[in-house]
Amino acid sequence: MNSPMIYALLGITLFSVGLYGLIVREHLLRKILALNIMGSGIFLMLVALGKRSAGELPDPVPHAMVITGIVVAVSATALALTLMLKLVEASGSAVLHDAPKDRS
Amino acid sequence: MEALDFALGLFDILLVFLVLSLAWLVMSSEDLFRAIVLFVAFGLLMALVWVRLEAPDIALAEAAIGAGLTGALMMAALDRLSSVKPIQKVAASAQRKQLSLSSKVLPLIALVLIVLGLGYALLSLPEIADGLTPNVKENMAQSGVKNPVTAVLLNFRGYDTLLEMVVLLLALLSVWSLGGERKLSPRSTNPILGSLCRVLVPVLILVSCYLLWVGADAPGGAFQAGSVLGAAGVLLLLSGWHVEQKYLLWPLRFILILGSGVFIIMAAVLLLIQGGLLTYPVAQAGWMILLLESAATLSIGATLAALFLGGVPKSRVDQ
Amino acid sequence: MGDLLTDAHWGVLLILLPLFGGLCSFLWPSAVKFIGLATVSAVALSVVGLGDQLLATGVYHHAVGGWGAPLGIDLYADGLSLFMLMVTALVGLGVSIYALDYFDQDEARRFWPLWLLLLGGLNALFLSADIFNLYVTLEIVGLAGVGLASLSGGGAALDGAMRYLMATLLGSLCYLLGVALLYHSAGTVDIPLLAERLESTPPVWAALGLICAGLALKTALFPLHFWLPKAHASASAPVSALLSALVVKASFYIFLRLWLEIFSVRTEGVDDLLGALGMAAIIWGSLQALQQTRLKLMIAYSTVSQVGYLFLVFPLAAIGTFSAWSAVAYLVLSHALAKSAMFLVAGNLMHFGGHDRIADLDRAVQRLPITVGAFALAGVSIMGLPPSGGFIGKWLLLNEALNQGRWDLVFVMMIGGVLAAAYIFKVLGFAFTQAPVTHEPKGVPAVMEWSALLLAVAAIVVGFLASPLMLILGIGETVELMGAGQ
Amino acid sequence: MNWHAWIPLFVVVSSLLPGLIIFGLPEERVGWRTLLNLTGAVIKLLLVSWMIWGVYQGDHFETRLALLPDLDLVLRAGPLSLFFVALSTILWLVTTVYAIGYLEGSPNRSRFFGFFSLCVTATVGVALAGNLITFLLFYELLTLATYPLIVHRGTDTARRAGQTYLRYTIFGGALILLGTVWLYQLTGTLEFTPRGFLSQIDPQHYPALKIIFALLIAGLGVKAALFPLHGWLPQAMVAPAPVSALLHAVAVVKAGAFGIVRVIYDVFGVEFSADLGVTTPLAWIAAFTIIYGSLRALFQDDLKRRLAFSTVSQVSYIALGVAIAGPIATIGGVVHLVHQGLMKITLFFCAGNLAETLGIHKVSEMNGVGRRMPWTMAAFTIGALGMIGAPPVAGFISKWYLGVGALEAGQDWVLLVLMGSSLLNCAYFLPILYSAWFKPTPKSWPEEHHFGRQETAWALLLPPLITALMALAAGLLTGLPFSPLEWAKIIAEREFYQP
C-alpha cells in the first residue's frame, strides 16, 4: 500500500466518523462539526487518489474541485451556525426534537 | 534516500493516526469548546496532510479557512450560544442519557461496514491512473496561466467557479435574511488585540495581494487570497473596526457581488465575442483571468468577513 | 432574424439571466419586484426560444470555454432538460406573480435575490452534462432553498429549515463522494464519457449507492423523507410551492439523468429496491397526509407520497419503453403545477383565516371560491382523476405496470389514488361547513387567488397536451434510446 | 367546415360554457343566470334534435381529439347515446326551471347552477363517449361535479353524506380505471363497437376478461346503486330536491346504468358476455337489488328516502333487462332508462313541492294533501302508478317487455321477480296515494307557505306536470316514430341483428 492510498482510506474513514457523529450526536453545533469532518474526508479522498498518476505532478483537477469545495463548506457552515443561533433564540434548544410541538 | 522514504512513511502513518484520533475526539468529547479547539487542530493537521499530498494550493486554503475561519466562526457561535441560552448544555446532556445502547451501537456497526465497503471499493481501483493530468498539460499553453490548478479553476472549469461564487453569495444572502441587522462591535478594549491588528492586518493584505498575483504561476490564487483577506476582515471586526453606515449599504453590496458579477459579465461578453461561455481568446486569457481573480478575491474576502458577522452589518454609530 | 433566434445561446442565457437578475435585485433592493418579474419573464421567453431551437436542430450542446469534455464542462439540453426547464419556468412564473402581493417590502427584498439565484441554479442544473458541475448546482439549489425556507422566521420555520439544511448538506456530501469515486474510476466527470467508460466494478457500485442515497435524501424518498414535511410545511407559501414543486424535482432529475445515461445497464436489483421504496412512500405518505389536521402539513405529506410515484418508474424502466419515461416526466410536470397551486392556496387560506386547521376552514368555498376552486382542480390532478396531467401520467404508468405484469405496482397506485382522494376531499368537505368559532376573515388580494388558480388550471390543461409534450420529451432521443436499447 | 365533426362537442360545450360563466356571475345577477341557463339548455336541445334527425337518416356525428399519441377523446352520436342525451337534455331543461323556482332567495346560487351545468355536461359526455377512456373521463367528472351539489347546504350532515358519496364513487372510479387500463393492455383499443370488440380475442384471456367485466360492472354498479354498492344513495338525500331529482333520474344513477348497458353492448357484446357466462350473475344481482330496494323502501317514513330506495330497485330493471341477454328484454331494459327517468323525476319534483310548500318530509304527514295540492298530487299519482307498472303509464311498457323478453330467453324466474317487485311497489306507493287523496286534511301543515292563488309557485308546479305528461305519453304513444320504445327497438336491432 502506498501513501496516497493510506490517505484515501483515511478520507473515507473520516467521512464515516463524521456520518456517525451526525447521526448519534444531537447538539446542532456537533452536527455541523460532523458535516465539516465528512467534507474533509471526501476532499482528502478526492485529492489522494489523484496522486496515483504516473507523472511527477498530481492531477490538478481534484485540487481545483477541493479548493472551491472548501470555500463552499465554510459558507455552508456559516449559514448553518447562523440558523442554529436563530433557532436557539426562537425555541430555546440547540437540539432538533422529534416530537412535534404544536406551534400555532 | 530509502531512509527518507521510510521516515516519510512513518510520518504518514503518524499523521493519519493523529488526524483520525482528532476527528474522533471532536465527535466524542463532551465539551463543545474542547471539540472546537480540537477541530481547529484537526484543520491544521489537514493542512499538513495537503502538503504531504503535494497540494500546496489546498494547504493554503485549508490553513486560512479550514483551521482559521471555520474555527473562528464556530467559536463566535459558541460564544453567542452561551449568551443566548446558558442552560442548553444541561439539556443536551440530559438528552444524551436517553440514548439507548442500540441507538449508539447500530450506527457504530454501520460505520464499520461503510468503512469496510468503501475501503474495498477504493482498494479495487487501479493502482495508477492519470485522471485528467495529460489533458491539462496539453492545454496549459492556451490557458493563459502557468499554475495548473489556477488554469483548471479559472479557465478549464471556470464555469464551476462562477457557480461557486454564487454559492458563496447565496450563503451570505441567507445569513443576512436570517440574522437581521447586526451592529459592528464596539472598539475592543483589549490592547493586545489592537496592536496585533495594526501589525497583522496590513501584513495579511499584503499576503493576499501576493497570493493573488503569484497564483498565475505558483500555488495561490483568488480563493487563497480571498480567504486571507477574509481573515484580515475578521480581525478588524474583532478589534472593533469602525465603518460608516454609508459604506455599508451600496459600496459593501457592490464589493460582495463584484466577483460573481464580473464573472457573469465576462461570461456574457465572451459569449458575444467568442461565441462561447467563458471562452477566452488565448492572447488575452492572462489578464482576463487576473481581472476575474481580483474581483473574486475582494468578494470572497468581504463575504467571509460578512459571514463571520452573521447579519446585515450596521454601523455602531446610530444615525 | 430567424437565424439569430435559432442560433442564439438560449441555454447559456437561461443560466446567466437569472443569476444576473439575482445580483441586480440584491444591489437595488427598492426595485426587486420589477427586476424579479422581468427576469422570470425573460427566462420563460428564453425557454420558449430554446424549445424552438431544439425542435429545429435537435439537441443543444455547448462546450464551456471551448475546451469540451473531458477537460472542460459541457452544457447539454435534450427533450428531458427542456421539459424540466419548462416546468421550472411555468411554476416559477406563477409563483413569482403570487409573490408580488404575498410579501411585504422587507420580505420581498430578501425573497427575490434568493429566488432568482435559485432559478439560475435550477436552470444550470437541468442544462449540465457534468456530474461535478451538477454537484455545484445542487449546492446552489440547496443553500437557496434553505435561505428561502427560513425566510418567514419563527420557531417552526427555523426548525424546518435546519432539518432541511442538514439533509441537503448530507445529501450533497454523499453525492460528492460518489462523484469522487466515479472520477477516479473513469478519469472524467462528463456524463456521456462516463457512460462509455464505466464498468461494473466495486467503486462504481459504491458510487451508485452513494449517489442514489444522497439524491434520494434530497428528493425525500421514503424513508429518507423525514426532513421534508416540517421544512415544506413551515415555510412561507410561495417558498413551499417552489420547494415542493421544483427543488425536490431537481435532485430527482439528476437521479433520472444518471440512471438513464450511466447506471441503467448496471443495476439489477437496485431498481426493484427503488420501486419498493416508492410504493412504501405512496402508502405511508398518503396515510400520514390523511391524518394531518393542518393543511400545509397535509400537502407536504402528499408530496412525500407523490415522490413515491416517480420512483415506480425504475423497476418498470428496466425493460421499459418510452412510455414509462414519459409517464414519469408527466408526473413531474403535473405534480409541480398542482402542488405549487396547492401551497399557494394554503397561503391564501392562512392569509384569510390566520390559520391552516383543516377542520376550521369555515365556509371558505363561499368566501374564497377561486382559491378553493384552485385547490379542487389541483386536487383532481394529484388524485390522478381525468382530465388532468396527473391522470395522463398515472395512465401511462399503469399501462406500463400492467404490461409487465407488475400487479404490486398497479395495486399500490390504485390505493394511492383512493387515499389521495380521501385527504383532498377531507379538505374540500370542511371548506363547505361552518367552523364552530368564526372570526373576521381578511381579504385576499386578487393576484394571489388568480395565480393559484392559473397554476391549477395548467395542471388540468396539460392533460390535453400529451401529444405535443411527448414530442418535446422525445427530442434527442435520450429517453427513447434508453428504452429501445434494453 | 364539417359540422358533423363538431356537433357532439358543441352539445357538451353548450352546458359547459354557461356553467363556467355562471361561476363568475355575482350572486344577485339572477336574470343573467336564468338567461344563460335556459339559453344553454335550449341550444343543447336544438343540437340534440339535429343529431337525432341526422342519425335517423344515417348521418355520422363524431368528434375526435387526440388525448395521448395512440388514444383519442371520442364523442360520437349513435342511437344509444342519443337516447340518453335526449333524456338528459330534456330533463335538464325542466329541472333547471324547477331549480330556479326551488332555490329562489337561497344563498350561493351561482355556485349551485355552475355545478348543475357541469353535472349535465358530464352526463352528456358520458352519453356521447365513443370509447371507454372518454367515458371514464366524463364519468369521473360527474363524480366531481355532483359532490358540491350534495354538500351544497354546508351542514355537517351534508358534508358527511358527501364523504360517503365519494367513498363509494372514488372507489368505483378506481375499479373502472383498472378495468380500462387492463382491457387496453389486452386489446390495444377501447373504441365502443356494436356487438363488442372482444369476440376475436384469444381464449386464454377469458379469465382476465371475466375479472375486467367484474371490475367495470362493480365500478359502474356504485353509481347505478347495485346491491351492495347502493349505500351512498339514501344518504345523498340531504341535497336540495332538484339535485336529488337530477341524481336519480338523469345524472348519476343513470350514468351508472347507462354504463352497464354500454359495457355489455359495445365493449363485450351481448352474445360474447353471455358466452363468457358473466351476464347470469349480473342478472341475479340486479334481481336481488330490485327486491331488496323495494323491501327497504317499504319501511321508510321519510318520503325522499322511500323514493331513494325505490330508485335502487327501479334502476336495476335496466341492468336486468340487459343481462337477460335477449332482444326483447333488452328493449325493456333500455327503454326503462327513459321511462324510469321521467317517472322518478316527477316523484322527486312532487316531493320537493310538498317540502317547500307545506314542509312535508314524511309519508305520515301526507294525509289529505291531495286536496291542498291537487295538481302536484296528480302528477305524483301518475309517477307512482308508472312505478308500479300500471297501464297506460310508461312503466308498464318496460315491465311488459322485460317479462316477455325473459320468457323468450327462457328465464322464467325473472317473471317472479317482476311480480314480486310490482307487489312491493304497490305496497309502498298505494298507501301514500290513499292517504293523500282519501284521508282527512289535518288542521295545519308543518310549515306552510302561500304562493298567491296557485297551490305552489309556477316554476315548481309546471315541471312535475310536464314530466308526468311525458311519462303518460311515453306509455300511450308507443307507436310514434320517435317514441322511446321505437328508439329502444332501433338500439336492440343494432345490437342483435347484423346490418
From TrEMBL, chain C:
The keyword Ribosomal protein does not apply. Residues 72-111 form the NADH-Ubiquinone oxidoreductase (complex I) chain 5 N-terminal domain. It comes from the Bacteria. The chain crosses the membrane at residues 12-28, 35-60, 80-100, 112-129, 135-157, 164-184, 204-227, 239-260, 272-290, 297-318, 324-347, 368-389, 409-432, 453-476. GO terms for cellular component: plasma membrane. One of its GO terms (biological process) is ATP synthesis coupled electron transport. It is a multi-pass membrane protein. Keywords: Cell membrane, Membrane, Transmembrane, Transmembrane helix. It is found in: Cell membrane; Membrane. The keyword Cell membrane applies. Residues 128-419 form the NADH:quinone oxidoreductase/Mrp antiporter transmembrane domain. GO terms for molecular function: NADH dehydrogenase (ubiquinone) activity. Belongs to the CPA3 antiporters (TC 2.A.63) subunit D family. This is Oxidoreductase.
TrEMBL record, chain D:
It is found in: Cell membrane; Membrane. Keywords: Cell membrane, Membrane, Transmembrane, Transmembrane helix. GO terms for cellular component: plasma membrane. It comes from the Bacteria. The chain crosses the membrane at residues 6-23, 35-56, 76-100, 112-139, 165-187, 208-233, 245-264, 276-295, 315-338, 375-401, 413-437, 457-480. Its main location: membrane. InterPro entries: CPA3_Na-H_Antiporter_D, ND/Mrp_TM. It is a multi-pass membrane protein. Residues 129-423 form the NADH:quinone oxidoreductase/Mrp antiporter transmembrane domain. Belongs to the CPA3 antiporters (TC 2.A.63) subunit D family. This is Monovalent cation/H+ antiporter subunit D family protein.
